[in-house]
Amino acid sequence: MSARTVGLGLVGALILAWVLALVAPYDIVADVNPARASLGPSGAHWLGTDHLGRDVAWRLLLGSRAFVAPGLLTAAIAGLVGGAAGALAGWFGGPVAALVRYTFTVGASVPRFVLVLLAGAIFGADPAVLAVATGLACAPAVGEAVTCRLEELRRAEFVLALRAHGVPEGRILGYHLLWVNARGLVARQVLQAFGFFLVVETTLSYLGGFGVQEPTPSWGNMLAFEFGIPDGNLLAWMAPAAAIWAGILGTALLGQDLGLREGARHGR
Question: Is the pLDDT of residue 92 over 80?
């Protein structure tokens, strides 16, 4: 089985879980039942229950809501902001490229996680705030990748031929360079941004203070809530840990596959 197939399967499972979670008839408060605390897997509770008697499988499903939609927002912001800035720098070069690259350098000089924590401390720990902050923190990497690609291509023979045939500059940049020759590169970068937000959200939820708070489920707070409980249901923390690992692995494998395809296409 190829890395691409595994990656698509894992990421597809994340998206499917999120879609199902949007319509799931599960009440996170009404499900508390200490009489069935820490039960093992059964037909009624596929992954057992946690130490408050809550269904682990349902909470695992609903936990996808904590990061999938915000992660998609992160990817969109990183792709749009970084891609647009990188396109301007790579196409025009000169002072425009110097200004954009200086801005990227300043933004990238602070670790991404620190920027997200700072935004959360100032504007609140709402998932949308964290998503916007993470997207902006990831934008410099997207922009730099697009800039380098366009600097390679803007003086290529096919670009000169398109200009000679009267093709508008906007179409050359938007379609022939960005879409035809850089879309795989951007897709790989935004996948990495999505995976990074998964790490950010689950880490903050695990640590507490930021991120999703109990009783709303997140894979991070599920892991923190159950890890180390004496005589607890092991799946109550192992299932979210495995889900986090699978989500990160899926985005990494897809990104790796896109990188290999881009490298083969451009002779690297």
Answer: yes
- pTM equals 0.92
Distance CA 227, CA 47 (A): 15
**CATH number, residue 64:** 1.10.3720.10
In this structure, the number of other CB atoms found within 10 A of the CB of residue 200 comes to: 27
Query: Considering the domain boundaries, does residue 4 fall inside one?
Result: no
Indicate the burial class of 215 (C-beta count within 10 angstroms; 0-12, 13-18, 19 or more).
Answer: middle
Is residue 197 within 8 A of residue 71, CB to CB? The reply is yes
Within-domain flag for 133: yes
CA distances 228 to 32, 51, 236, 238, Å, are 20, 11, 11, 11
pLDDT value of residue 154: 87
Is 80:135 a contact under the CB 8 Å cutoff? no
| pLDDT over 70 at 268, yes or no | no
Q: What angle do CA 37, 38, 41 make, to 5 degrees?
A: 120
- Answer whether the bond into residue 70 is a cis peptide, omega within 30°: no
* Domain assignment present for 16: no
Q: Looking at residues 217-240, what average pLDDT do you find? A: 92
Q: What are phi and psi of 117, to 5 degrees?
A: -60, -40
Q: What pLDDT, on the 0 to 100 scale, is given for residue 39?
A: 93
